[in-house]
Amino acid sequence: MGDKLKVGIIGATGMVGQRFLCLLENHPWFEVTVLAASKNSAGVTYKEAIANRWKMTTPLPEKYKDMVVKDAFKVEEISGMVDFVFCAISLNKEQTKLLEEDYAKHETPVISNNSANRNVDDVPMLIPEINGVHAQIIESQKKRLGTKRGFIAVKPNCSIQSYVPPISALMEYKPKNILACTYQAISGAGKTFNECPEIIDNVIPFIDGEEEKSEKEPLKIWGQIESGKIINANSPIITTQCIRVPVANGHLAAVYVSFKNKPSKEEIISRWENFKVPEIVLGLPNAPKKFLKYFTENNRPQTNLDRNYENGMGISMGRLREDKIFDYKFVCLSHNTLRGAAGGGVLSAEYLKACGYLNAK
């Protein structure tokens, strides 16, 4: 294992946990040493725990098959075996919040895929290309928790990953109002088509809790650190509709935006195409070489064709044009279980390691 950090996956049997395992199979910095899940899956090998529930299109990596699944609530035991954990366990918010804090208080940093701690004002919610500076709040969080190295960092909800990056590239023009309608894949609910027959030949116009997250979370990403807290931005005003569509992977958004200082179409495309990410991010193993891509074709981006742009870690946009009510409208696309979930978590961990927040115990 050499100098690799030892990693635990909390919630290893679910779809996001499985995606974590695929992404970390040959990771240059991290080595998975613990797989953990609920008590129902604990005590058996991973291949027995998932049985016929492997949801990835690639085979289950051999290196994980015979690992014995731990009880995720045996925090002290697991903390003694790892340097940090990724958390993708499926519990209610209060249970998740307490479990993640327990790991942090056992001096085990948590990179969370869950929403339970996203609204905590000293927990950074990271898109490293955009708000990596928010990692500085970790020092305030450690003081609150009484820890030396334990903390929690979260990634945002998958639904906002398509439209927050392109809007972030345009902040100099002061966006005022945003309408975003997201057309979200079934993997966002942790399901495959075999597990979601109700979506066949159908569209479901409701995803529980998704619109609230989609409207509030961008304001934290665009917020500022003040007096040991992340203070949410007070603009733009965002309204959303989130719709489940019969697609395996990929969240597409139709976005409408008005600005205080309206840019030209050419200025918008230039900002997207020339968006600069921090140098420290460019050197991370899972960072896209080009974060934002604008398609000039009228029928792009398409979910099936473009969700894997930059190995699923890039964001693509298209169909930018003026609007009769808002200033502009466009469509954009992100891969929800890569950039939006496990991949975003791995990239955040890479960023935190590069910044010195993750290290060996």
Textual characterization of the structure:
The chain has helices spanning 15-24, 46-50, 62-65, 75-79, 93-105, 128-131, 138-145, 164-168, 210-221, 265-273, 279-282, 303-306, 338-354, and strands spanning 5-10, 30-37, 70-71, 84-87, 110-112, 152-154, 175-184, 224-226, 229-231, 237-244, 251-259, 292-295, 315-322, 328-334. With 361 residues, the chain is an alpha/beta fold. It has a six-stranded parallel sheet, sandwiched between helices. A six-stranded mixed sheet has the order 10-7-11-14-13-12. Strands 8-9 form a two-stranded antiparallel ribbon. Helix 1 crosses helix 13. The radius of gyration is 20 Å and the shape is globular. It starts with a strand and ends in a 7-residue tail after the last helix. The mean pLDDT is 97. One of its GO terms (biological process) is threonine biosynthetic process. InterPro entries: ASADH-related, Asp_semi-ald_DH_pep-lack, NAD(P)-bd_dom_sf, Semialdehyde_DH_NAD-bd, Semialdhyde_DH_dimer_dom. This is Aspartate-semialdehyde dehydrogenase.
